[in-house]
Amino acid sequence: MQTLTINTSRREEFQDITSAVKQIVQNSGITSGICLVYVPHTTAGITINENADPSVKSDLLLALRKSVPDSLPYTHAEGNSPAHLKASLMGSSVKIIVEEGHLVLGTWQGIFFCEFDGARTRRFHVQCLA
Q: Of the residues 8, 32, 85, 125, which has the fewest C-beta atoms closer than 10 A?
C-alpha cells in the first residue's frame, strides 16, 4: 500500500489524482488485477469522472451544493454536516481494473480527490492487488 498526501486550497474542490495513481500502478509491477484508491476522511471523497473538460468538476460541485445546502438546521456540533453528506454521496473508495500494467479507464475518465471541508492537508491510500 502507498499513502500519498494532498494539499487542498479551497473549501470544496476536486483534484485530479490520476497521474499519481497511474505512477503507483506502474511502479508496483502489477500486470493484471485491481487498484483500490481509498480516502480515510469523513469530509472528503473519491470519484471517477470526466477529466477533459474542467467545467464538469464545477458542475458536479454546483449540483452537490444544490442537493446538500448549507442552510438546513443541522445539529452536528462542528458545523460541517454538509461536508459529511457530500463525502457520503461521493464515496470513500474506487476500484479500477488493471490490465497489461495499466489502469482501465475510459478515454475521458480521471480519478478525483473530492474535498468538502478544506483547505486541508489530506491523505489517500492506493493498493494494487494482483
A: 32
Nine cell digits for residue 76: 452536528
Q: What is the mean pLDDT of the chain?
A: 97
The three cell numbers of residue 58 are 464545477
Q: How many residues does the chain have?
A: 130
In one-letter notation, the amino acid at residue 117 is D
Q: Which residues of 13-22 are buried (b: 16+ CB within 10 A; e: fewer)?
A: bbbebbebbb
Encode 113-129 in three state secondary structure.
Answer: EEECCCCCEEEEEEEEE
Q: What per-residue confidence (pLDDT) applies to 52?
A: 95
Q: Are 119 and 44 in contact (CB under 8 A)?
A: no
Task: Give 46's pLDDT tier (boundaries 50, 70, 90).
Answer: very high
